[in-house]
Amino acid sequence: MNVLNKLHDPALGRKMVGRVRELAARAAERLGRPVLLMEVCGTHTMAVSRTGLRGVLAGLLELRSGPGCPVCVTAARDIEYMIALARIPGVTVATFGDMVRVPGGQSSLERERARGAGVSIIYSPADAVELARQNPDREVVFLGVGFETTAPLAALSISHAAELGLGNFSVYSVHKSVPPVLRALLELGDVRVDGFLLPGHVSAVTGSRAFAFIGEEFGIPAVVAGFTPVDILDAIHMLLEQVLAQNARTYNAYRWVVRDEGNPEAQQVMEKYFYPGDAYWRGFGLIPGSGLFLSDTFARFDAGRKFALKVPAVADPAGCRCGDLLRGIITPADCAMFGRRCTPAGPVGPCMVSSEGACAAYYHYGATC
Amino acid sequence: MCLGIPCPVVEVPEKQWAVIDVGGVRRKVGLHLVGEVRPGDYIMVHAGFAVEKLDLAEAEARIKIWEELLAFERAEQTS
Lengths: 369, 79
Ligand code: SF4
What we know:
Chain A: It holds the Pfam family HypD. Chain A: One of its GO terms (molecular function) is carbon monoxide binding. Chain A is α/β, with parallel strands linked by helices. Chain A has one domain (1-369): HypD, alpha/beta domain 2 (Rossmann fold), CATH 3.40.50. Chain A has helices spanning 3-6, 10-31, 42-50, 53-57, 70-73, 76-87, 109-114, 125-134, 151-163, 178-188, 200-206, 213-218, 229-245, 264-273, 303-307, 322-326, 350-353, 358-365, and strands at 35-39, 61-65, 91-95, 118-121, 139-144, 169-173, 195-199, 222-225, 250-252, 274-281, 285-294. In chain A, the strands form three sheets. In chain A, strands 2-1-7-8-9 form a five-stranded parallel beta sheet. In chain A, α3 (42-50) runs parallel beside α18 (358-365) and α8 runs parallel beside α9 (151-163). Chain B has one helix at residues 56-78; strands at residues 5-14, 17-22, 25-30, 42-46, 49-53. By secondary structure, chain B is an alpha+beta fold. In chain B, 34% of the residues are buried. Chain B has a five-stranded antiparallel beta sheet, with no helix packed on it. The chains are: A alpha/beta, B alpha+beta. The A-B interface holds A 3-4, 6-7, 12, 15-16, 19, 41-43, 70-71, 96-98, 123-127, 145-147, 149-150, 152-153, 156, 200-201, 204-205, 227, 230, 234, 253, 255-259, 263, 265-266, 269, 354-356 and B 1-4, 6, 30, 32-35, 42, 44, 46-49, 51-52, 54-56, 58-60, 62-63, 66-67, 69-70, 73. Iron/sulfur cluster binds at residues 320-322, 325, 332, 335, 337-338, 342, 348-349, 351-352, 359 of chain A.
């Protein structure tokens, strides 16, 4: 069997679950309560739900979602800015699909598009550059939403646009950095987790070392995890071994993709194009040094400076508990609107919109999955 | 949105661009972040770019450790 298939092999997965359950039972007995692990990646939230792992480990181990869905953590004011950009005549905003349905104060990109605004769904930042090249009479703005995995790709798109001499391409960067939000979460201290499943593809860029502070400064184990069932079980197992041994280190269980030092090319590209500044996160407010903003050298590609729009302050949707969810305080079922007033067909908050949002994951796969 | 897909490289027609196979569909992806890649190599693709080369031997080794651990446990339980 091909090794990639083997990582999805149900027979191997089942046997690993048996072993994980055993360790979880021992750890839960030691703690006098179920083990609480946080998954810090929307793709983990989805994978864990899809495989039914939450149900299989229920009572022994809880997997709680954290601030790992880039669309969900985007602040209401930034959503408002994106909608305002789309309203400018002659502007086309190019975005990943998840963003278009996120509700703003009054509207959404989807609604603006229905009214005739230029909103284009793309798969890659490279597509946005292509769009600008093909439409010289329009201003194309790429909505840069994402973490360290996506930010270098947005930087490459700027480099490409500069090479082509495109004056009609810019990026609205709300890219964010994961280590600072985990630090903020730990400093807030509203939830005491026993371990972190760290985001595999963010770590591929930053390296597992960027998360060493979790063990060193906060005494909590953390493990970089991949996304196949075998990878996830392997990482949970490593966390449980640490809980039982009262160890608190940051390990890398995703060595077939992630280097401890990360990807130096991607890091260099990020450093060249972005500088770390204070950024607003839904659920957290302002987090120092957590945003990736375009450096002055590339100011002409910065949609924030190019259009310098003033948008009114907007509140998060009334009653939506995405913020609490992103801080790991609640699970989706704790929100009174979950599955009633708020569904994927009629979402109230971004956590129900995004394919990586916890509310969407729990809705599709069952609230206790 | 952040989905990463492990894909085999089919050909490298230009220095920084490769053609990959995603479940039978051919796609062009940027190699700007991963250095030299050859046909037959595997890469992790995210939003149209390779973000890392894959070390499948490492995955294989990890699976082997698990299989040995599980076999050892079974032997213990039956003995
Ligand atoms: S169920 Fe809807 S309203 Fe409730 S937290 Fe999730 S997205 Fe917000």
